[in-house]
Design goal:
33% helix, 171 residues, Phosphatase 2c, domain 1, 2 domains, 4 helices, PPM-type_phosphatase-like_dom, globular, alpha+beta, four-stranded antiparallel beta sheet, metal ion binding
């Protein structure tokens, strides 16, 4: 038992220990270990009693890998969106296909590795502007049926923080 305890302590502390007297002696100094969780998600679509599927969704479990080195987000960073279409699928599909453009390219979305109140306010302001851009683009795009609309629910994860936003478009 003593030998097993020694092996566990060595593995946990990554230290070379020379014959400790007992398992109760702390063999390693206090360390701060930086733990970065890995986010994984799944999704399922169910049309239910409806005749046509009008809904879309987006899942980005690692936002940095989707955007490349354009932005320096805290780890973990993720984005999720559910677009509940009505009056046809066009508006929900349009937002899903153009999400990167509206939410990152067309607004001044600042990326940083530090999350503080200023960053969170900038994210909120950027998202408000992005949803207004989406409304304007949908209203002006002749390829989108004018009777189509969508409700959008987005969730952003930045480090320890999560921001949830909703918006509604009807044309």
């Amino acid at each position: 038992m003593r030998h097993h305890c020694l092996q566990v302590l060595r593995a946990l502390c990554h230290l070379r220990i020379a014959q400790p007297r007992s398992c109760h002696e702390p063999p390693c100094p206090h360390r701060i270990v930086k733990f970065i969780p890995y986010i994984r998600s799944g999704s399922f679509d169910d049309i239910g009693p409806e005749r046509y599927m009008e809904d879309e969704h987006i899942r980005m479990d690692d936002l940095s890998s989707h955007l490349g080195s354009i932005y320096n987000f805290p780890k973990p960073s993720a984005f999720y969106g559910v677009f509940d279409g009505h009056g046809g699928p066009e508006a929900a599909t349009y937002i899903r296909k153009n999400m990167i453009k509206f939410f990152f390219e067309d607004v001044n979305f600042l990326g940083t590795s530090e999350v503080d109140n200023i960053f969170l306010e900038e994210v909120e302001d950027s998202l408000r502007k992005a949803f207004l851009l989406v409304d304007s683009a949908l209203a002006n795009d002749r390829g989108v049926n004018s009777s189509s609309g969508t409700m959008a629910l987005t969730a952003w994860i930045f480090g320890r923080y999560i921001q949830i936003h909703t918006s509604h478009s009807w044309f």
